[in-house]
């Protein structure tokens, strides 16, 4: 495309641009991304993409779209700045900003001949792949430059800051996520290997946690070689633990030996859609409130039937947001049946953020009466007088795969996320 068309003040509309390409029989290639920190990995992929056709159009996430996908701390650069940089590249012919979470609607408007995404995506994960192939187009998984992803660069920057802080004699605070995953689930044996979106469940969970981008390490604590293999495919660390440990928290404490984490985030191995911003809120709350020994999440629950479900844990808090009790039965008890409706409960979401010192104490405590009765390990902390700060969020992304039938619900959620 002539240079004056690309940088001129009166650009044609997208529809006019596409029509012009079609009239010239130009082969249109499409790719998309946040391009928050443009780096060599992006350039490598964009140049590859352009080689598959005559013109390259790049779909660019708006600022709000980036926040939805990456959390409140992103984007680092505004959409207009990112667009300006991309348009300066000689192999990019057009940049279109989209507001939705995914570029599916934009792809449908353009109807590209070729859709390109990085090889870190499986074909079934690529948004718009089915549509492009449906109208006779081609889907290409481009090669990647090793170690050249935005997540890798942010991680390296974080490690560099940590190193500099250590050199200056300052105490660094390392935040590590640990995902306990055991094979012998009583309600759903082998669920960590159950397929979700064509991948084992544990891999989907680990990839979601890794994408959050703010952990110094992500560790999957396992008791089975098959689960270990599936977790390694997510590109995270794996620690083998004994299969006779009494709880997931004991498994986490075992996996942390030899690490220097000061804050430990326990993500359940059956929660594939936890949102970055919800996890970040709990971490920040623990950092701010020195009275809290640990933090966790909760959601409002107004469905009486769900409140009676023993597989859904309920929590009650004091006026300052500290947990008073967790139970499988509806709490608090509704004595006055004529009280106004709807009745509000709080559903506990199984994410925990610990101070390292508290977690190390846990494995030395005996299982108490309340934990034994309810089969809820967080009650061990309350029985020992520890304070759990509960952060209530509207959208946590919690779904929880407890039973085989929950997988169908998770598949629907995954398809919705990719639209």
Write a structural description.
This protein is an alpha/beta fold and 419 residues long. It folds into 3 domains: 3-150, HUPs (Rossmann fold, 3-Layer(aba) Sandwich), CATH 3.40.50.620; 173-270, Spore Coat Polysaccharide Biosynthesis Protein SpsA, Chain A (Alpha-Beta Complex); 274-398, Spore Coat Polysaccharide Biosynthesis Protein SpsA, Chain A. It contains 17 helices and 16 strands. The strands form 4 sheets. It has a 7-stranded mixed β-sheet with strand order 10-9-6-11-15-12-16, with helices on both faces. It has a 5-stranded parallel β-sheet with strand order 3-2-1-4-5, sandwiched between helices. A two-stranded antiparallel sheet has the order 7-8. Strand 1, helix 3 (40-50) and strand 2 form a beta-alpha-beta unit.
Helix percent band: 25-40%
| Number of H- or I-type helical stretches | 17
Q: Alpha-carbon distance between the termini?
A: 31 Å
Broad structural category: alpha/beta
- Measured by DSSP, the beta-strand proportion falls in 15-25%
Gyration radius, to the nearest Å? 24 Å
Tell me the total number of β-strands: 16
Q: Mean of the pLDDT scores? A: 86
CATH homologous superfamily caption of the largest domain: HUPs
Looking at the overall shape, the CATH architecture of the largest domain is 3-Layer(aba) Sandwich
Q: Kindly give the count of domains.
A: 3
């Amino acid at each position: 495309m002539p240079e004056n068309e690309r940088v001129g003040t009166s650009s044609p509309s997208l529809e006019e641009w596409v029509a012009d390409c079609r009239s010239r029989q130009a082969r249109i290639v499409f790719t998309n991304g946040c391009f928050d920190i443009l780096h060599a990995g992006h350039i490598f992929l964009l140049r590859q993409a352009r080689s598959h056709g005559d013109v390259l159009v790049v779909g660019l996430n708006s600022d709000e779209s980036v926040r939805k996908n990456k959390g409140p701390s992103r984007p680092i650069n505004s959409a207009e700045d990112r667009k300006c940089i991309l348009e300066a590249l000689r192999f990019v012919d057009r940049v279109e900003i989209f507001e939705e979470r995914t570029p599916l609607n934009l792809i449908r408007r353009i109807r590209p001949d070729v859709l390109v995404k990085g090889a870190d995506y499986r074909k079934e994960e690529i948004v718009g792949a089915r549509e492009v192939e449906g109208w006779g187009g081609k889907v290409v998984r481009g090669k990647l430059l090793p170690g050249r992803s935005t997540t890798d660069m942010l991680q390296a920057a974080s490690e560099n800051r940590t190193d500099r802080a250590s050199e200056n004699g300052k105490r660094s605070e390392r935040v590590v996520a640990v995902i306990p995953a055991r094979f012998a689930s009583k309600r759903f044996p082998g669920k960590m290997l159950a397929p979700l979106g064509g991948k084992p469940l544990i891999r989907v969970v680990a990839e979601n946690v890794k994408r959050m981008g703010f952990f110094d390490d992500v560790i999957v604590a396992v008791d089975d070689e098959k689960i270990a293999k599936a977790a390694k495919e997510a590109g995270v660390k794996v620690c083998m633990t004994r299969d006779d440990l009494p709880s997931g928290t004991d498994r986490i404490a075992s996996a942390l030996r030899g690490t220097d984490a000061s804050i430990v985030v326990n993500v359940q191995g059956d929660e594939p859609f936890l949102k970055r911003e919800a996890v970040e809120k709990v971490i920040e709350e623990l950092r701010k409130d020195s009275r809290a020994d640990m933090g966790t999440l909760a959601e409002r629950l107004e469905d009486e039937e769900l409140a009676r479900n023993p597989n859904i844990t309920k929590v009650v808090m004091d006026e300052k947001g500290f947990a008073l009790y967790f139970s499988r039965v509806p709490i608090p008890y509704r004595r006055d049946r004529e009280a106004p409706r709807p009745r509000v409960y709080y559903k506990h979401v199984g994410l925990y953020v610990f101070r390292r010192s508290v977690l190390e104490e846990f494995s030395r405590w005996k299982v108490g009466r309340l934990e034994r009765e309810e089969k809820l390990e967080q009650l061990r902390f309350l029985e020992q007088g520890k304070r759990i700060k509960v952060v209530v969020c509207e959208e946590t992304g919690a779904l929880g795969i407890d039973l085989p039938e929950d997988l169908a619900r998770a598949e629907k959620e995954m398809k919705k996320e990719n639209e």
